[in-house]
């Protein structure tokens, strides 16, 4: 299934692009300063001058802050520098994304940007660190599945040269040079003091090409000089009397200098985790977390420098809700009765109601949803059924004998029993799956994912509130990450047994804050109980009608539709336009003519640091262009570098060959082509993007002319219809949106409208429109839930 790139995801990736652009500029400027300091240090025999070298990562952060491109909540927080195990600067950014916000997608989408814009290549090594086994298993499955969109994104980036690895997978330098290698690692496995991880630093027979030849003393010395934190054998126990680098996975990682992705970055802030991850000598660290953790300074015997999180961009719970990613509002029903069966009955009744709505949805749209009930019990062990506590088997028997569910529709997920592993239960989203209720205590931990879970029946809430709130996140994800348009199927439901309303609301509030969705606390709804225990923080949904003059007016707006033999549907720009472009008639000769004969490559564009045997000059900087093996133009690499623009590799290969042959006819030698490869590919990408946009525009207009794309009102159901009422969560009597004279607006289509539902810019526009005499009515279009077009 294709992925939609949502508004907030585009915002995150755009900010990353801006960061990488500034980072590359600051790095180039810093290298020039460092080169000058190195020269001065050698001439004056004063190595202390190198201490004044600027930190390009900090300079990048300061430039973004001055431009107002950091989150408002972090504008006053200074950048926290990061260095690897050799003392080199490591760029580090944090994406603050709520739980369920698609952190894996953002990480995958960030990789081609980091590799292309920062490292200048599309192959290499990624160390992907996850916090627990559930997320490890899920991520590994997604990245290995060639049909999964995440894997397909990586295949496009690397030209189908992806290798997904675990820590025990054989590793060679050839793989790292020619493929995009992604190794998954659990956080505890990367802990340097953990016994299982000490194996990472032991010699292995399946790690090749990273350590020098065994008996070459000078090669080992050069390797240690280049990477001082490599592990070596104990000379007292070895066959050699000089330091010998171990041929281990840990040393390979330190030599590779990988890009590191840290899922749930707030769990990797201990000194041990921090030193271990940065001890792998990463060239870039991307953290994703719902709740960034700022490490405070510490004095005493073990002092610690403050280490705040470098949050580049923040995503809020409301962003996810607007994008259709989560089921909100959350309806919480605390039942104070003594019989747990009453609570389970209420939850099951809600499940049946949702199931009826889902059947109606499928009959009208073909979209399949099977609502699932999660039941949290007090006991699960075979020897723990004592008649005093609510046991998993008690709940299962009631659901079958009284609730009317069949045994195949109930699954138990505990430490001892896991019905979800049965072949028929593994794909909970399949129409062939029959599971409608899952009974657990706390086995559905972070990483378990089923968007069909709608209702949580917490029978153990009064005994274990924290376990109940941990399950909240399991019912939040919206099926297919798209609202259904049926209110009941776009919300989530919690029923708690024998728990106080206020305590439940407070516990859920804290959990939402931990999941990065504290701004959605107002979306928790608690029913009025009639006894003053309604939960002051809850707000109920109400419908706002149209003004009487327009109450019965039918208002339709056209949609951008794709009309073909297979029917009428909304336009999919990527599939209907970009993938339909015909590149065969493209003449690259015009680009060849634009390339000047005296094309110059900036000398400071990229440098390589080389170790020598010269005692006086042990370290020298060489221009990459002067290295013989770098002076050949790599056609295959060029094809991969334009694959995001020109998706057809065979046409891309032909075009690159024509481009290179045209340059040769203009006098470009092989040496000049290789030396200028970077800038030539950049010019080719710019030209192709311009051609693609032009062809896409022409194809779009041609399809419009032939009727293949339509934007007009139709007599069938393919129009957008203005609703007759609008939803509000504001209480009656709340402050209304008013004009400059303090009078409520008079020309809005729906009335009344409340000031808390408008931001400053929206309210200013609304008040301006309301004052226009020629205007009959106006309406604020809500993102993602109201009218939208593309084209």
From TrEMBL:
The record places domain Helicase/UvrB N-terminal at 38-293
One Pfam family per UniProt? ResIII
Protein known as: Type III restriction enzyme
Listed Gene3D superfamilies? P-loop containing nucleotide triphosphate hydrolases (3.40.50.300)
- GO molecular function annotations of the record: ATP binding; DNA binding; hydrolase activity
**What SUPFAM superfamilies does the annotation carry?**
P-loop containing nucleoside triphosphate hydrolases
* Cross-referenced InterPro entries: Helicase/UvrB_N, P-loop_NTPase
Task: Tell me which domain of life the UniProt entry assigns to the organism this sequence originates from.
Answer: Bacteria
Q: Which residues cross the membrane?
A: none
């Amino acid at each position: 299934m294709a992925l939609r790139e949502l508004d907030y995801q585009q915002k995150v990736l755009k900010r990353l692009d801006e960061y990488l652009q500034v980072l590359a500029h600051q790095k180039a400027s810093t290298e020039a300063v460092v080169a000058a300091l190195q020269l001065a240090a050698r001439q004056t025999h004063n190595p202390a001058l190198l201490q004044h070298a600027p930190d390009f990562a900090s300079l990048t952060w300061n430039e973004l802050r001055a431009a107002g491109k950091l989150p408002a909540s972090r504008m006053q927080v200074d950048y926290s520098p990061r260095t690897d195990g050799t003392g080199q600067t490591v760029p580090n950014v944090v994406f603050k994304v709520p739980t369920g916000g698609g952190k894996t997608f953002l990480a995958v989408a960030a990789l081609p940007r980091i590799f292309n814009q920062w490292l200048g290549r599309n192959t290499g090594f990624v160390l992907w660190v996850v916090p627990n086994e559930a997320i490890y298993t899920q991520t590994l499955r997604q990245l290995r599945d060639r049909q999964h969109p995440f894997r397909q994104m990586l295949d496009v980036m690397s030209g189908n040269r992806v290798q997904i690895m675990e820590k025990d997978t054989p590793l060679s330098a050839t793989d790292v040079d020619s493929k995009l290698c992604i190794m998954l690692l659990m956080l505890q496995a990367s802990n340097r003091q953990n016994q299982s991880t000490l194996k990472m630093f032991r010699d292995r027979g399946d790690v090749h090409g990273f350590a020098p030849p065994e008996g070459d003393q000078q090669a080992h010395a050069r390797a240690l000089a280049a990477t001082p934190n490599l592990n070596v054998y104990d000379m007292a126990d070895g066959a050699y009397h000089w330091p010998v680098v171990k041929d281990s996975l840990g040393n390979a990682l330190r030599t590779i200098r990988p890009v590191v992705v840290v899922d749930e970055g707030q769990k990797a802030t201990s000194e041990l985790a921090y030193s271990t991850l940065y001890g792998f000598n990463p060239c870039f660290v991307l953290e994703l977390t719902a709740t960034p953790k700022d490490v405070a300074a510490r004095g005493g015997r073990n002092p610690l420098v403050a280490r705040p999180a470098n949050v580049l961009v923040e995503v809020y719970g409301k962003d996810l809700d607007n994008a259709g990613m989560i089921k909100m509002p959350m309806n919480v029903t605390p039942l104070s009765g003594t019989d747990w069966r009453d609570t389970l009955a209420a939850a099951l009744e809600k499940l049946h109601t949702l199931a009826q709505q889902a059947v109606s949805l499928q009959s009208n749209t073909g979209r399949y949803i099977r609502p699932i009930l999660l039941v949290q019990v007090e006991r699960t062990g075979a020897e723990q059924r004592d008649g005093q506590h609510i046991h998993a088997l008690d709940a299962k028997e009631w659901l079958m004998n009284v609730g009317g569910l069949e045994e195949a529709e109930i699954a138990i997920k505990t430490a001892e029993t896991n019905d979800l592993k049965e072949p028929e239960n593994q794909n909970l989203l399949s129409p062939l799956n029959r599971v409608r209720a899952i009974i657990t205590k706390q086995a559905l931990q972070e990483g378990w994912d089923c968007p069909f879970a709608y209702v949580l029946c917490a029978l153990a809430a009064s005994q274990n509130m924290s376990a109940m709130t941990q399950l909240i996140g399991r019912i939040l994800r919206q099926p297919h990450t798209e609202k259904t348009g049926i209110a009941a199927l776009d919300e989530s439901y919690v029923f708690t047994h024998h728990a106080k309303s206020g305590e439940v609301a407070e516990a859920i509030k804290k959990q939402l804050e931990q999941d990065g969705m504290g701004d959605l606390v107002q979306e928790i709804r608690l029913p009025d109980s009639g006894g003053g225990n309604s939960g002051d923080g809850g707000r109920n949904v109400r419908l706002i009608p149209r003004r009487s003059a327009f109450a019965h007016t039918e208002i339709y707006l056209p949609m951008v539709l794709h009309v073909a033999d297979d029917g009428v549907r909304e336009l999919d720009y990527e599939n209907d336009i970009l993938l339909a472009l015909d590149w065969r008639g493209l003449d690259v000769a015009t680009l060849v003519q634009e390339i000047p004969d005296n094309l110059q490559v900036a000398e400071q564009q990229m440098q390589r640091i080389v170790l020598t045997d010269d005692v006086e000059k042990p370290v020298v900087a060489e221009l990459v262009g002067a290295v013989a093996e770098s002076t050949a133009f790599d056609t295959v690499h060029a094809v991969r570098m334009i694959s995001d623009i020109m998706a057809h590799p065979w046409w891309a290969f032909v075009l690159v060959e024509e481009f290179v042959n045209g340059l040769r006819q203009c006098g470009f030698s092989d040496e000049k082509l290789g030396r200028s490869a970077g800038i030539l590919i950049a010019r080719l990408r710019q030209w192709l993007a311009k051609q693609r946009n032009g062809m896409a525009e022409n194809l779009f207009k041609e399809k419009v002319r032939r009727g293949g794309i339509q934007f007009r009102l139709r007599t069938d159901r393919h129009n957008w219809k203005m609703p007759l009422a609008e939803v509000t969560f504001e209480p009656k009597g709340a402050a209304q949106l008013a004009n400059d004279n303090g009078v409520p607006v008079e020309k809005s289509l729906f009335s009344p409208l409340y000031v808390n539902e408008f931001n400053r810019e929206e309210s200013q526009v609304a008040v301006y429109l309301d004052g226009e005499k020629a205007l009959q009515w106006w309406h604020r279009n809500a993102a993602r839930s109201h009218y939208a077009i593309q084209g």
